[in-house]
Design a protein that fits this description.
- The structure is a homotrimer.
- By secondary structure, the first copy, chain A, is an alpha+beta fold.
- Helices cover about 30% and strands about 25% of the residues of chain A.
- In chain A, a hairpin with a 2-residue loop joins strand 1 and strand 2.
- In chain A, helix 2 packs across helix 3.
- Chains in contact: A-B, A-C, B-C.
- Chains A and C meet through strand 3, helix 3 and strand 4 of A and strand 1 and strand 2 of C.
């Protein structure tokens, strides 16, 4: 099964790759490494504000899944076909964090689990999760990635 | 026109590469990738404190421009001549953020726009901007970069 | 002297590589670069909470040293022997920061100084230190690294 068929099989659809929120591009490539810009969820009320006070953990996990899908849309735009992904190398997850919230890993698992569901072993990555004081447009989660692709 | 002539043409001058603020160096190289340490603006009152309460957005953008110039000074020290830059690969921008400030992308555009003004297509990069709870020496902005250079 | 003998000579012992705190792995490799996941200190009272209000700077430096050792344990797991390290490329240090704490570089020096003590020139790295609003499990410090290794 192709990666994109697998995504559909899991009940998801790749969105349009979103426009960057500033003077930059969604990805750059250096050798076989793709550096994906920090992605955010749809700018809708439920995915905005601090976790867990404004956005419960479960909703923030859903935001992380939606970011993952829009990062994969960017990746497809970059390489044409997601089957060319060799390895999700590393993921950095920033949570718009209440000062006494400590379950950032649970939030970013929304991204990590989906990557493994989609890519299997190629989706297993190293990761850093942390709590930001605030995020662009007041979204609850922001995630960037480095991905290795086939030649 | 050389990149350094272009910088001067835009009305800027490369500063001295600043001393690191701790037990590290301004850059390392691995293959053709240069990893530039997090840079800060001149430690002067106007570039210190939280955005926008202590430092207005416009001043923080100027801080981002000054960081960009001192990162390019580091880059010149690393490779001898800025004409050897192949691509600004990725930029990470940290804003010393009031908890209800959400325009981090506007601040980091001060860096991104200048990189494109200087390097053209080679200056276009992927990017992550976020809000820090506090930054070293209480500066308003901190930026690191990965840059691909010619052999 | 081997790197591991050097570590012992400095009075330290490599710990067990800790289990990741979420759905990810401790490291991935792309070419000769190893991307180490964000590491945390032992989850013990003294290494938890905000710096400097809950954890004094000296204790946070010790946390940074303990993270460094557990990152090196991960690195050994990845490459079999620490003598194969070619260069510590870059270090990102996140401090669980009181909003008016500005000495993040001093905290992360606990990591940087130890890397240089252990690896000499190969331990000198570029670095970014910043203040997080909160960190996973409420630890005081989190550090990730990119490391270049021999073939």
């Amino acid at each position: 099964m192709s990666i994109e068929a697998k995504i559909n099989d899991l009940g998801y659809t790749l969105p349009e790759a979103p426009a960057p929120a500033g003077s930059y591009v969604n990805y750059t490539r250096s050798g076989n490494l793709l550096f994906l810009a920090g992605g955010i969820p749809p700018v809708e009320d439920e995915y905005m504000g601090k976790v867990p006070t404004d956005t419960p953990v479960e909703t923030a996990q859903e935001a992380a899944r939606l970011i993952t899908l829009n990062r994969l849309a960017v990746l497809k735009e970059a390489i044409g076909c997601l089957d060319k992904v060799k390895q999700i190398v590393t993921v950095n997850g920033f949570v718009n964090s209440a000062p006494d919230f400590y379950a950032h890993p649970a939030v970013i698992n929304g991204c990590s689990d989906l990557l493994v569901d989609i890519f299997g072993d190629k989706g297993i990555h190293s990761r850093t999760a942390m709590g930001a004081a605030a995020l662009p447009l007041n979204v609850s989660v922001e995630i960037n990635m480095v991905v290795e692709v086939e030649d």
